């Protein structure tokens, strides 16, 4: 199970209420993780317990009694006595709107996509109940020559491909490269519609500082970074969690 954010190592405990149920967790735990640990799933795209919370996708919004707005639960730590709501009609509507925007800027080839059935974007669209997208897929972005949707796939790495058209710019791969592997091979360049993951100043992944550890592939919630073996032969029965070029054993690299 992915609890959304890394576990807190604090020995001090905090009790709060989530959706009417009291929950006690270590100080420093995110509201998202506290909710997930008690079995309440909060939709998320940019959070994973592999790396620190970033708060970019805005899908995990919650309401906290006495506080204005709808903070992201992945970046908001628990506090004693908080009364959190995760499933109000307002939150459901906000999440649906966010998902609608993501899907409006994403190729709709799920049935033939290598990640079909193992795609968090697909899962979250279902989780928020998205049935239709009001925004056309013919927005300006799709016709700009330098749009990520118009860029070719990078297939230079022998183990995985990078397809900019499927990137939701959650930056999980960039953070995994830094926090899990300790390499700084990836970055986000550009702004708004033009923002994209790139291998730094290099044109191709293979020319970058990438060591092919597979942390970015493991962290990617879509088919943007995809193992070549999965593309060729389909999803394995038992997933290997690394594409490390140095041993290929499938070691669990999750940092604790
Ligand atoms: Fe919290 Fe993306 S999961 S903002």
- Mean pLDDT equals 87
The bound ligands are: FE2/S2 (inorganic) cluster
CATH topology of the largest domain: Alpha-Beta Plaits
Structure class: alpha+beta
The biggest sheet, with number of strands, parallel, antiparallel or mixed sense and barrel status, is:
4 strands, mixed
Low-confidence stretches: 238-256
Strand content: 5-15%
CATH architecture of the largest domain: 2-Layer Sandwich
**Number of helical stretches of at least 4 residues:** 6
What's this model, at a glance?
With about 260 residues, this protein is of the alpha+beta class. Helices cover about 20% and strands about 10% of the residues. It has helices spanning about 30-35, 90-105, 120-125, 170-180, 215-220, 230-235, and strands spanning about 15-20, 20-25, 65, 85, 160, 185-190, 195-200, 225.
Structural write-up:
Strands 2-1-4-3 form a 4-stranded mixed beta sheet, with helices on one face. Strands 5-8 form a two-stranded antiparallel ribbon. A two-stranded antiparallel sheet has the order 6-7. The chain has 6 helices and 8 strands. The longest helix has 16 residues, at 89-104. The protein folds into 2 domains: 13-87, Ubiquitin-like (UB roll) (Roll), CATH 3.10.20.740; 95-233, 2-Layer Sandwich (Alpha-Beta Plaits), CATH 3.30.70.20. The two termini are 15 Å apart. It has helices spanning 31-37, 89-104, 120-127, 172-179, 215-219, 228-233; strands spanning 13-18, 21-26, 63-64, 83-85, 160-162, 187-189, 196-198, 225-227. It has 256 residues and is α+β, with helices and mostly antiparallel strands.
């Amino acid at each position: 199970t992915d609890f959304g954010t890394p576990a807190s190592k604090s020995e001090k405990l905090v009790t709060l209420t989530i959706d009417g149920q009291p929950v006690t967790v270590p100080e420093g735990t995110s509201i998202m993780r506290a909710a997930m640990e008690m079995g309440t799933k909060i939709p998320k795209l940019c959070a994973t317990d592999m790396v620190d919370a970033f708060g970019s996708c805005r899908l995990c919004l919650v309401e906290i009694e006495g506080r204005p707005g709808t903070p992201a639960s992945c970046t908001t730590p628990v506090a004693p006595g908080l009364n959190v709501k995760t499933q109000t009609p307002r939150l459901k509507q906000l999440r649906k709107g966010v998902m609608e925007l993501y899907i409006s800027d994403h190729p709709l080839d799920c049935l033939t996509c290598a990640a079909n059935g193992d795609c968090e974007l697909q899962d979250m669209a279902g989780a928020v109940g998205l049935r239709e997208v009001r925004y056309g897929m013919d927005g300006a972005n799709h016709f700009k020559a330098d749009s990520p949707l118009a860029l070719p796939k990078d297939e230079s790495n022998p183990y995985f491909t990078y397809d900019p058209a499927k990137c939701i710019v959650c930056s999980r791969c960039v953070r995994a490269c830094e926090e899990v592997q300790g390499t700084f091979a990836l970055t986000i360049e550009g702004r708004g519609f033009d923002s994209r993951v790139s291998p730094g100043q290099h044109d191709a992944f293979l020319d970058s500082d990438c060591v092919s550890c597979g942390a970015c592939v493991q962290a990617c919630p879509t088919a943007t970074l995809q193992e070549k073996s999965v593309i060729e032969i389909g999803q394995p029965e038992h997933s290997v969690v690394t594409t490390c070029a140095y041993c290929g054993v499938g070691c669990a690299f999750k940092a604790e």
